[in-house]
Amino acid sequence: MDIGENARSYEVITYGCQMNVHDSERISGVLQAAGYVRAAGEAQADVVVFNTCAVRENADNRLYGNLGHLAPVKESHPGMMIAVGGCMAQKDRDIVLKKAPWVDVVFGTHNLGHLPLLLERARVEKASQVEILEALEVFPSTLPTVRGSEYAAWVSISVGCNNTCTFCIVPSLRGKETDRRPSDVLAEIKMLVDQGVEEITLLGQNVNTYGVDFGDKEAFGKLLRACGDIAGLERVRFTSPYPKDFTDDVIAAMAQTHNVMPSLHMPLQSGSDKVLREMRRAYRKERFLELIGKVRQAMPDAAITTDIIVGFPGESDADFEETMDVVRQARFAAAFTFQYSKRPGTPAAQRDDQVPAEAVQERYLRLADLVADIAWQENLKQVGRQVEVLFAEGEGRKDADTLRLSGRARDNRLVHVKAPEATALRPRPGDIAEVEITYAAPHHLIADGGLIGLRRTRSGDVWEQAHAPAAGIGLGLPARARG
Ligand code: SF4
Questions:
Q1: What is the mean pLDDT of residues 189-202?
Q2: CA of 270 to the centre of ligand 1 (A)
């Protein structure tokens, strides 16, 4: 396939979790390696790829709804092709073609690299192709990639999951846990840092059992420590941990490794031991609270976030009150709250004690209010604190006449920083600055006192402001360039 004006264009539409966002970067990578180019703006792409999620009920409706919209578009765009991949494709297989016969390719979570070949075969044979593998062929990390960010990257350390939570469809779609060797993971991280990446997020359905594949129970803690030796790697994050397997060596590695960030997303799911048992989550609320107590002892400034499901079958009012109680004790910086969603093929979906929708809705709203209230109180404690912000891509946001540039603090809180008047002095994506928090909202922080110090991580130039932020932004010539 020749690159140039005849190159076919593509667009990848991603649903779901970070694992899917990471896979979509690989899908773009293999398409570009095969000579496709990313479609520019609204221009209709020659190939539209849906990378789907199967975790929640509305995932089906959304996918088939979008495929329905594309049918007439495809009619009016000769040669246009549609491919459906990801967890929904892995689950539905040729049902996708029954529901949307105008789809050309259905591929799964284990064969991303085959997409260009399947598209070619569908074009040549003028017939839809379905290829779903039961197990991983090659680690997606070995495939070419097109990263969504210049300075941040996802690095998968494992795929699949050995747990069997009764509401979750992931293990049946992504298989049992398969681990990458630490040397491969570290080699990829070093390569990314050489390409200018400063922040990496280690990815796995359950990062805490990393190493189970090669018999090293402490492999994850060791991996975090090894990241500490990589020069130029500013920040290390990871997702998702699992409370039962979150061991003291990992807490120590987080606290003692300079570039591992004090932010932890630890899914609770429910605060009721009865519900946790029926979810087949192998921990109880005391263990969960004890764990985050240990984390806070080791890292007092750590921000802890979580996932909570309300309305799991059989959940009583008393069970729900236990969840509210754990939330009051845990004081999460934020929580992603979900209404239970029946997933065909999961044990919980077969239960006949589904909670009525009104009760689920009422609990969901009460929990969301409590979580937002606590998040705000925790954010208010940040006012007056000096924090380090890594600036994100994007134009920032204009509130009235104030332009603010956005980034993340070490604890992953979102911070909007008042931009210096002079464009030349403004932080760029990937730059790191010290700022003082001057205002707190429920879901973000504001720093309007100017930059205390700025590090242009790409050029290495460092600016420091001698005096307190009250004086506003008095950044003169660079204090010194990093040696
Ligand atoms: S830990 Fe449970 S919820 Fe998470 S991916 Fe595994 S089975 Fe699903």
A1: 95
A2: 14
